[in-house]
Specification:
277 residues; alpha/beta; TIM Barrel; eight-stranded parallel barrel; 10 helices; 10 strands; 43% helix; 16% strand; binds magnesium ion
Length: 277
């Protein structure tokens, strides 16, 4: 297995994007996913500065992630209330921001835009469900116009709900950014079974690990790669088996030594990948 190993830029907890880019290059990674940026970076000047820094370091951006002000991942009810296109009152501004992120992706030659669309409402006949479907269609169509694939970040819903939603959105450029840990953190299923179910849609992946929730409505705990319940070796094996050839993007959203965790995570992946044909 010889996929490139990269990192989600904001996982390093370095607020300045140029400093984060420099650190990723110093770590010796060839590729990154661009996480959410401070607002001023989304204009033409910011894009130019980012492109120049990436070129100087010979770094490639595989994907750009859109996230929104006001989102909170404190516990499951808060996620349901605040994340993605589910809150009706912020949907229009979030759609506009997502389009700017798609523009940034295209400008940086990234082929994928990712976002959490939010907790997909359980009632598929509800107005909320229809609104999130329409939002995803609008983003997909905009992405298509700039030559980008729209990758839904996964794991807040179980695989059958995700596949049902993708069917309703019904756009050929809507795929999945698969995150195995989220299924554990949200208690929504077994990662490897979900990966099998979503295999045809996987366009980009995160490598993240986690432990399950210990109480109702709580989220589990994200942990360094290899310390959680994903089974990273089996995850890599399954990615190879479904023919995923894209980058393995390490994501680390917790802990006090993010850079150390990312560096150790990469070593673990390199070790495990040598075992996989
Ligand atoms: Mg993720």
């Amino acid at each position: 297995m010889d996929n490139e190993i990269g990192v989600f830029s904001t996982s390093l907890a370095i607020p300045d994007p140029l400093a984060a880019i420099a650190k990723i290059a110093e770590l010796g990674m060839p590729v990154l996913q661009m996480g959410p940026l401070p607002n001023e970076w989304y204009g033409a000047e910011g894009t130019e500065r980012l492109a120049a820094a990436l070129k100087e370091r010979a770094l490639r951006v595989s994907a750009v992630c859109a996230a929104f002000e006001g989102e909170s991942y404190a516990d499951i009810p808060t996620v349901q209330r605040t994340v993605g296109y589910v809150p009706a009152e912020t949907m229009d501004e979030r759609l506009e921001h997502t389009k700017r992120c798609a523009d940034l992706a295209a400008a940086l030659s990234a082929t994928v835009l990712t976002t959490h669309v939010g907790f997909i409402p359980a009632d598929t006949a509800s107005a909320d469900y229809a609104r999130v479907v329409r939002a995803a269609q609008e983003i997909a169509d905009y992405c298509a116009s700039v030559g980008v694939t729209f990758g839904l970040e996964t794991g807040q819903e179980a695989a059958p709900e995700l596949l049902g939603f993708l069917g309703q959105v019904d756009r050929s450029n809507v795929k999945v950014n698969f995150d195995p840990a989220n299924l554990i953190l949200y208690g929504t299923g077994r990662p490897l079974e979900a990966l099998d179910a979503a295999a045809d849609y996987v366009v980009h992946v995160h490598v993240k690990d986690g432990l399950p929730p210990t109480g109702p409505q709580q989220l589990g705990t994200e942990v360094p790669l290899g310390e959680g319940e994903v089974n990273i070796a089996a995850y890599l094996g399954k990615l190879a088996a479904i023919g995923y050839r894209g980058p393995l993007i390490i994501e680390r959203e917790a802990g006090s030594d993010r850079i150390g965790d990312v560096a150790r995570g990469r070593e673990l992946l390199q070790h495990l990948m040598r075992e996989i044909a």
